[in-house]
Sequence to fold (342 residues):
Amino acid sequence: VVLSSFEDICGQENIKTYLTEAISTGKLSHAYIFNGESGSGKKLLADAFAETLQCEHVEELVKSGNAKAEDIKPCGKCHSCIQAEAGSNPDIIRISYDADAKKSIGVDDIREKLINDIVIKPYEYDRKVYIVEDAQRLTAQAQNALLKTLEEPPEYAVFILITENSASLLQTILSRFTLVHFPSVSDAIMEKYISGKYPEEKERLPFLIKYCAGVPGVADNIINDENFETVRTSSLENLFSVLSTDRSSAFVVKKYLDENKDKAENIFVFWLAYLRDIILMQSQAPNMIINIDKKDTLRQLAAKYDTDYLMNMSKRVIKAKNMLARYVSLKAISLWLSLKSA
Fold:
C-alpha cells in the first residue's frame, strides 16, 4: 500500500520540501536517483512522490497557479490516489528484480517494462512514472538501454531509480539524473519515531536508537522480527567460543552456525557490533557502545582479551562474513574462524 502523505515518512524534511517545491513550481526533473541505506525511506518517498504527481487534486492546484509547497500532497480520495494506494495505478510502473530467480535487472527487463511501454501515452493521467527498485542491480547493458531512452524522453515520463549505492551506476547515468541522497536522521528524530509508532518499546528504546544509526526502516525490521532478540542474545553467548583459543571451540561455533543457517549473516553483524563495543569499553568510551543493555557481559570479555587480539578477531569476522557472501560453506567458515593464527 502506498503512503498517502509525505508527512508519514520519518525525517527527510529537506527532501520532502525539495520535491513538493518542484511540483508546485513546475520545475520537475525527468529523472531522479533516490540514494541511501536500506530503510532510509527511499521507497516510501518514491511511492508518495509518484502518487502526488498523479493526484488529480494536486494537478488542479498546480494548474490554478496558486500551489504552495506545503499544500502539495496526495488527497487520498481521487481515482488516481485510490488506484495508487491499491497498487493498481496503470501509469505508475514498477521495475524490480526477482531475488529468487536472478541477481540483476537485465536489458530484457528494461526493454519489456520501460522501453517498449514508454512509447505508449499515459493510460489515464497526464504522466507516467517509472520506479526502478534496487537500481544498483541494473546491468551495464540495461543502463545503456535506459540511456538511449533518456536522450529524448517524452514529456509525460518521470523516472525514479532507487538505489543503496549510486556509485555502482554508470557515470553517464549519473550525469542524466538528479541525485537525491537520503541521509541518516538524528537520534532525536529516531526517538520520536520509535516512541510514537512503538510505545511498547520503551525499555529497548536506548538500544534501538543506537543500533539503527538513524535509519527508521531498520527499527521497523527489528521490532517486527520476533527472532531478533533471541539471535542477538545467543550470538553474544557464542562469542565466547569464537574468541576462545581452545581448538574444540570450532565445533561449538560450527554447531551454532549450522543451527542458525538462515540467520548466519545477522550473527556475523552482531559479533562485529559486540567486538566493536568491547574495544570501546577498553578505550574508556562506554557511552559510545551500541549494545548498552549487554554491558555486564561485554565488560567480562573486555577484561579477558587484549585490544590487539579483539581487533584481529574483528577482521576475521569481517572476512568470514565476506566468505558467506561468496557461498563458502558454514563448516569451512567456522573452522577457519577458529584457527586464530591463520
User: Anything to note?
Assistant: DSSP finds 16 helices and five strands in the chain. The radius of gyration is 24 Å.
